[in-house]
Design brief:
With 281 residues, the protein is α/β, with parallel strands linked by helices. It has one domain: Rossmann fold (3-Layer(aba) Sandwich). The chain is 21% helix and 28% strand. The chain is built from 7 helices and 14 strands.
Length: 281
């Protein structure tokens, strides 16, 4: 790995080491001093001081770091990132920002305990490293392989964490494995009933939304534009054009939903409900 591969920037939420050749997260933190800030700003409204948060699919920690600051010393963030190279950057970012309330995990989460293989990708060539998937995707459309070597990555279920004190918020962004994570968390979710923020792909019938409805959650579409016109570095170059992140915010039916802004969150009533509005600023 050459020295030009990794950059370092003093960004909105702290100091971040990032991959220069990452055309989404790396580009954003370098050019804007933030990543998906409109999404993050919305997420933080649902997190409180003292909460225990799981960031599943944390990448370099663009969300884990501000989450950790929000929950404070009485809270905790469990931060999962199974790509070995990206996990090293995540650990570096947590350490450099002096966050003692984050536990970085190198395992992946899924529907069962297993070992999955990951190609040896070349992080010194341009790619979307946040788009790498362990399930149902040709990763070479997004990134190039460096060698024919394989990395063996341990996967486990969220139910393995059933003995922790509490869980208030789950953020899940795992590139097509979102439903697998939920299926491996049946007892965990039943016990803690956390708020869930989960990446969702616009496919109908939408089995992810159907699953959330069936386990007693009230889901809402939450669509946010990737480009923030009020970004930290005041950069008016919109490299993302009209690209947006599409997620489902799932609230336990028994919880207060007054924080849900119905002007742009639209409630999901079945597996065919489509998103309507996007948050642009």
């Amino acid at each position: 790995m050459n020295n030009n591969t990794i950059g370092r920037v003093k960004a909105k939420h702290g100091t971040f080491h990032f991959c220069h050749y990452d055309e989404f997260i790396g580009l954003s933190i370098r050019e804007y001093g933030e990543y998906s800030e409109l999404e993050l700003k919305t997420i933080l409204k649902f997190i409180n001081e003292g909460d225990i948060v799981f960031d599943i699919g944390a990448n370099i920690g663009c969300f884990s770091v501000p989450m950790a600051r929000k929950v404070g010393s009485n809270g905790k963030v469990f931060s999962f990132e199974p790509q070995p190279f990206i996990n090293k950057l995540l650990k570096k970012n947590i350490q450099e920002n002096g966050l003692n309330n984050v536990k970085v995990m190198s395992e992946g989460l899924g529907a069962k305990n297993e070992i999955l293989e990951l190609d040896d990708f070349d992080y010194s060539t341009v790619g979307n490293f946040g788009g790498i998937s362990f399930l149902g995707r040709n990763n070479q459309k997004y990134v190039k392989k460096k060698t024919n070597k394989k990395h063996s990555i341990r996967f486990m279920t969220l139910d393995r964490f059933i003995d922790i004190e509490q869980c208030n918020f789950l953020k899940i962004d795992v590139e097509l494995m979102e439903l697998n994570v939920l299926k491996g968390a049946k007892n965990f979710i039943k016990k803690f009933r956390p708020i869930i923020w989960i990446e969702n792909h616009r496919e109908y019938p939408n089995f992810l939304n159907k699953y959330l409805l069936n386990i007693g959650y009230k889901p809402f579409w939450a669509t946010t534009m990737l480009y923030n016109p009020n970004n930290y570095f005041v950069n008016d170059n919109n490299y993302y054009l009209n690209s947006a992140t599409i997620n489902t915010l799932a609230m336990p039916k028994e919880k207060d939903t007054s924080l849900v802004d119905h002007d742009w969150f639209n409630e999901i009533v079945d597996e065919y409900t489509e998103p309507l509005n996007a948050l642009t600023k």
